[in-house]
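Field notebook, page 345. I keep forgetting to write these up properly, so this time I am using the form the group agreed on. The chain and the ligand, zinc ion, are recorded exactly as supplied. Prediction of the bound pose follows.
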Amino acid sequence: MITHDLDLALREVVAMVPREQVFVLVDDNTLTHCLPLLQRTLFLPLSQVCTIPCGDENKTLATVEKVWQFLFDHGATRHSVLFNLGGGYVSDLGGFAASTFKRGMKYVNVPTTLLAAIDAALGGKTGFNYYGIKNGIGLFAKPERVILSLEFMKTLPAKEFLSGYAEMLKHALISSPLELNRVLGYDPGKTDLEELEFLIERSVVIKNYIVENDPTETGIRKSLNFGHTIGHALEQHSIDTGEVMPHGYAVFYGMLAEMYLSHIRLGFKKEVITQCLPLLYEYYGRPVCSCKDLQQLVLLMHHDKKNTSTHSINLTLLQAVGNCRIDQECSDTEVLEALDWLFAL
Ligand SMILES: NC(=O)c1ccc[n+]([C@@H]2O[C@H](COP(=O)([O-])OP(=O)(O)OC[C@H]3O[C@@H](n4cnc5c(N)ncnc54)[C@H](O)[C@@H]3O)[C@@H](O)[C@H]2O)c1
Ligand SMILES: [Zn+2]
């Protein structure tokens, strides 16, 4: 859970390994904004800090190789520990690099974005984008520990804050009407961290409960994929076209379209969509897309890891708030109808 004593939490981890075996992975932004908070306790030489360029377009095998090479060049062993100091990009990529390095070294996630704090840093999914597929290569490998401190989030840009809020909304939608009212009752334009503390804790509880009950995603964990089939296609398409969309924005749009699909297939109440729409108009903005993009998006969804057949697209939908229906096979026509609806909003 959230720690109010970051220094103590860090000291507890480094007490377990020799100082020269502690490594930190940062991106350009967390190097500037977050590393100083970690260094207050760790005082590591910069030779133990590996910096990678920020942005999901760099979540590639080439960047993983840079991390592996850095670890080899600086004497890391299987008994070393890697601190992933950053958002989901750093924890996904660093978690993968660490858990494959010399058959696996320990890693600790120190999330610095709201999205990573409530989602990406938890649950042990690691990986990188490959062959045009979001997180196309990866493995399940749990972090040794997650150190969650709100101190890091003080420098988070508003856009990244909104990105994390979208995943909180997802946790609420798959959980219960009570959680949904709580999250919708918070104004994400305020970035009030104190008020947010309770909501973060609730979101972490929801994610951890689901992951603990289905660590390898054979059942209930698929509920976390709500909004992500269409969301991942939108996100990958934005990477391919060079206008990278934050993960949470793509998930927000994906959830709207998948709520629409839930409505036409399962009778999900349209009023819930109406409750969420002010967020689109006030904060996220309408997604833009051309007819050519629609076909490309459907093509990307056919490559989604969740599919079990080449003929249909596998989605997690909602019968009602808190009532998920996993493994819903949808046709291209249904998905295109949902995309048409989304882009006409
Ligand atoms: N493993 C999982 O279960 C899981 C779940 C959700 C998302 N993800 C992955 O997470 C990634 C998205 O994560 P994200 O939204 O955290 O994005 P991110 O890691 O790319 O961070 C967003 C931006 O904020 C900057 N930043 C991070 N912390 C900052 C801080 N404290 N102050 C100022 N700037 C800061 C980063 O440098 C980056 O530019 C995607 O790759 C997605 O696939 C993984
Ligand atoms: Zn996500």
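OBSERVATIONS:
- The first helix runs from residue 6 to 14.
- Residues 159-343 form a domain with the Dehydroquinate synthase-like, alpha domain fold (CATH 1.20.1090.10).
FOLLOW-UP: compare against the apo run.
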